């Protein structure tokens, strides 16, 4: 079906203002037949019954698709079209235009139990209170990340050009791997007004509550916070 001309309303407005069809064609740069048809119809809407009649996208397939999607929202449109013996384009048209549904990708999120959800709601309220009185500007968020220091490569894309296999070995073709991957733990903090220096954990250190309290918070974070914020207020983690 041909899309309706968006200038129909302007054509009717100019015609009611006394402009001739030739003037409207010249002003709006539209075909003469479009101007005459719009003036004859007297409305910017399409003529009743215009366009190709619907043969497949009837209420029956619409109801079938609605029920099938309700039973299994992840159902493939291609499989539904094959099961109903209609084209895939027809199924997509019914789902998007008549059912007003659109495909949505799956999202990943943390699995939380009831206690964790309740705790998060409580913490969100405290964060809102901090934002209301300006304390969020002195709030510091910290996180840690474990980085592997072994060489990363893509076996499909990374290549070494050589004439022979021995020459390829000399060109560092081999990538070493070990059972215990070499890694390094890094801590960092960030606030609205600055960020902390990176805190590297020495290899072999046992990371527990005592280590985190003594080596990270008291030794690194507390001096930086006093210098950066001038007045350091101890609070609970949120």
Which keywords apply here?
238 residues; mainly alpha; elongated; disordered C terminus
Output the structural class. Answer: mainly alpha
The string of secondary-structure elements, in order, is: HHHHHHHEHEEH
Sum up the overall morphology in one term: elongated
Low-confidence stretches: 232-238
Describe the structure.
With 238 residues, this protein is mainly alpha-helical. Among the domains are: 8-41; 68-104; 138-229, no CATH class. 45% of the residues lie in helices and 8% in strands. The chain has nine helices and three strands. A three-stranded antiparallel beta sheet has the order 1-2-3, with helices on one face. A hairpin with an 8-residue loop joins strand 2 (183-190) and strand 3 (199-200). Helix 1 crosses helix 3 (32-41) and helix 4 crosses helix 6 (88-98). The protein is elongated and about 85 Å long. GO terms for molecular function: nucleic acid binding. InterPro entries: RNaseH_sf.
């Amino acid at each position: 079906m041909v899309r309706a001309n968006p200038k129909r309303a302007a054509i009717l407005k100019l015609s009611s203002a006394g402009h001739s069809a030739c003037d409207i064609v010249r002003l709006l740069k539209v075909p003469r037949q479009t101007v005459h048809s719009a003036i004859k119809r007297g409305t910017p809407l399409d003529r009743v019954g215009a366009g190709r009649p619907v043969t497949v996208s009837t209420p029956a397939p619409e109801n079938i698709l609605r029920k099938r999607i309700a039973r299994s929202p992840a159902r493939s449109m291609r499989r539904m079209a094959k099961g109903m013996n209609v084209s895939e384009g027809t199924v997509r048209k019914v789902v998007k235009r008549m059912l007003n549904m659109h495909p949505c990708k799956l999202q990943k999120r943390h699995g939380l139990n009831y206690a964790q959800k309740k705790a998060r709601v409580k913490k969100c309220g405290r964060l809102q209170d901090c934002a209301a009185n300006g304390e969020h500007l002195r709030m510091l968020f910290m996180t840690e990340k474990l980085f592997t220091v072994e060489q990363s490569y893509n076996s499909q894309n990374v290549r070494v050009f050589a004439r022979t296999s021995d020459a390829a070995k000399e060109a560092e073709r081999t990538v070493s791997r070990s059972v215990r991957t070499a890694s390094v733990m890094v801590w960092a903090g960030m606030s609205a007004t600055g960020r902390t220096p990176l805190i590297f954990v020495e290899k072999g250190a046992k990371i527990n509550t005592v280590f985190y309290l003594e080596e990270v918070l008291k030794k690194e974070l507390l001096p930086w916070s006093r210098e950066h914020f001038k007045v350091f207020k101890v609070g609970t983690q949120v």
